[in-house]
């Protein structure tokens, strides 16, 4: 079972909780955004999980800080044979040198960049980024239109940009939405999840119970899509303390 089934916010950090048939509690911090996921034994309740998370906060914050400083995964050499992701598919890059304008296209399982002989790595990277941006620019409008109708709202403005810590964001006053350029590398279902998630902030600012309820109603499989957005953890820790001793030792002030 890999579907998260609880969401908590602890000291401003959103936590996905998955209950599993395990003995110890595990905490993982996942790239690229530093999402925190807790795998908890079935018998644990919200308070026990909060306590465990609060006690691991310094560690969690260290991992998240490390992620922000880490060199971008996109710093590739842009040479033939490298793998690059497009809409959730892993493609092999093929660089074809030829005179004329730079051009990017998908050909089966290949991502082909046509570029002038002797082009720089930087210019290839810029061309590919521009192409990713174009993919999103085409994919986002139909999704926004669909969800404007579905939820009876208007999205006046949206923008694609590089973000280091978020897949998307929403300004509730101006109703402006932002989407991370990296979404073009993920399965299209993930993009739709982010569209619905950000529009849902029109109705609810925080990721609390009401937010979860709205998402459940609007996009019942949103948890699966959210899982898709995340790979393996950057780091994880096991909380190897049994329930009894944890209770005694851990009930601190202001959780
Ligand atoms: Zn949000």
What is the top-level CATH class of the largest domain?
Alpha Beta
Small molecules held by this entry? zinc ion
Order of helices and strands: EEEEHEEEEHEEEHHHEH
As for the number of domains, it is 2
Q: End-to-end span in angstroms?
A: 29 Å
The count of β-strands is 12
CATH topology descriptor of the largest domain:
Zincin-like
CATH architectural category of the largest domain: 2-Layer Sandwich
Radius of gyration: 21 Å
The percent range for helix content is: 25-40%
Q: What is the CATH superfamily of the largest domain?
A: Metalloproteases ("zincins"), catalytic domain
The largest sheet, given as strand count, sense and whether it forms a barrel, is: 5 strands, mixed
| Helix-strand makeup class | alpha/beta
Low-confidence stretches: 241-255
Strands of the largest sheet, in order across it?
1-2-4-3-12
Count of DSSP-assigned helices: 6
Output mean pLDDT.
86
Name the shape in a single word: globular
DSSP strand (E) fraction?
A: 25-35%
Gist of the model:
It is built from six helices and twelve strands. The chain is of the alpha/beta class and 255 residues long.
